[in-house]
Design goal:
By secondary structure, the protein is mainly beta. 5% of the residues lie in helices and 49% in strands.
C-alpha cells in the first residue's frame, strides 16, 4: 500500500487546476496548510505631535496558496517524464484558471503559478512545492446561487458565503427608450433603466465590472448611458431584499440574479 504522509493513497488529498485533477499525474498533497486571511494593505497615517497612528482601514492583498506535493513514479525516467507533463499542465502562460482544493470541493479560486518549481527526488517519488497566487483573494461558489423572478414585486433570498459580493443581474423584457423604465432594487440600491430593450435581447447589470450592456445577436452593446445610477448593488451573506418594478411601456418577463457567492 502506498502511503502519503501517513495517509493511504485511497484517502490522499489533491487539487484540481484548469479542470484536471492532480491525481491524473499521480500528484497528492503531502500537507495542506492554508492561510486564514490573505496579507493586508494597512492605511495608517502619522500626525506630528500625536502619539500612535490614525487608522484609515485596510484592504486585502492577493491570496498565496502553497501546495506541498508528492508525485509518485516508477523510476527516475518516469519522474522526469511526469515532470514535463506537470510543467505543461501548470504553465502560468495560460493565465488565471480555476483552482479547487479537495478540502473544499464546492469552492474555487482563480489563480496561477507565480514561483518556479524545484522537484526533489526521494527514492522513486518526487516532492515539490507549488505556489499559486489568486489576485482576487476570495473563494467563489463552484455552483453559484441564482435567483429567478418572472413578476414584479418584492422578494427576499438567503445567500451563503461570508463576504459581500458583486452580482450580475440579467433582465428580459421589452422597453422603448424614454417611454418606460425597468427598476431593480437590491438591498436598498436601485438601478433604473430607460433605454431600448427588445424581447430577444438581454439587459445585463454587472456590479463587479461596474457596467451595463445589452446582449444583441450575441454581441454586447453598452447600456451604461441609459441607467439612472452607477451605485451598483451588492449581495451579502444571509437575507437579501429585492424589488422589481416597471413603469410606462416597460415589460419584464424574467429577472435572474447571479449572486457570485464568495468567502474570504
Amino acid at each position: 500500500m502506498t502511503i502519503i504522509s501517513g495517509i493511504s493513497l485511497n484517502n490522499a488529498l489533491g487539487f484540481s487546476f484548469d479542470g484536471v485533477h492532480s491525481s491524473t499525474y499521480d500528484i497528492y498533497l503531502a500537507k495542506s496548510p492554508f492561510n486564514l486571511l490573505p496579507d493586508l494593505i494597512n492605511y495608517f497615517e502619522t500626525i506630528p505631535g500625536k502619539p500612535g497612528l490614525l487608522d484609515y482601514g485596510s484592504d486585502y492583498k492577493q491570496r498565496d496558496i502553497v501546495l506541498d506535493c508528492m508525485v509518485l513514479a516508477k523510476n527516475e525516467q518516469d519522474l522526469k517524464r511526469k515532470s514535463r507533463e506537470i510543467a505543461a499542465w501548470l504553465d502560468p502562460a495560460k493565465g488565471l484558471k480555476r483552482l479547487i482544493l479537495d478540502t473544499e470541493p464546492n469552492k474555487f479560486y482563480l489563480a496561477r503559478v507565480t514561483k518556479g518549481i524545484l522537484v526533489e527526488q526521494i527514492a522513486k517519488q518526487g516532492r515539490f512545492e507549488v505556489t499559486m497566487t489568486a489576485p482576487d483573494p476570495y473563494a467563489y461558489a463552484l455552483d453559484d446561487e441564482i435567483y429567478t423572478y418572472t413578476k414584479t414585486g418584492s422578494y427576499n433570498f438567503e445567500r451563503n458565503g461570508t463576504a459581500i459580493s458583486y452580482p450580475k443581474i440579467e433582465i428580459k423584457g421589452t422597453n422603448t427608450k424614454d417611454k418606460g423604465k425597468i427598476s431593480i432594487t437590491l438591498n436598498n440600491k436601485t438601478i433604473g433603466y430607460k433605454g431600448d430593450l427588445e424581447s430577444a435581447e438581454t439587459l445585463v447589470i454587472d456590479s463587479d465590472m461596474l457596467t451595463a450592456y445589452r446582449i444583441v445577436n450575441g454581441q454586447k452593446v453598452s447600456a451604461i448611458n441609459d441607467i439612472e445610477s452607477v451605485d451598483f448593488p451588492i449581495t451579502r451573506p444571509g437575507q437579501n431584499d429585492v424589488t422589481i418594478a416597471m413603469e410606462g411601456e416597460a415589460v419584464i418577463t424574467e429577472v435572474k440574479i447571479y449572486s457570485r457567492t464568495r468567502w474570504i
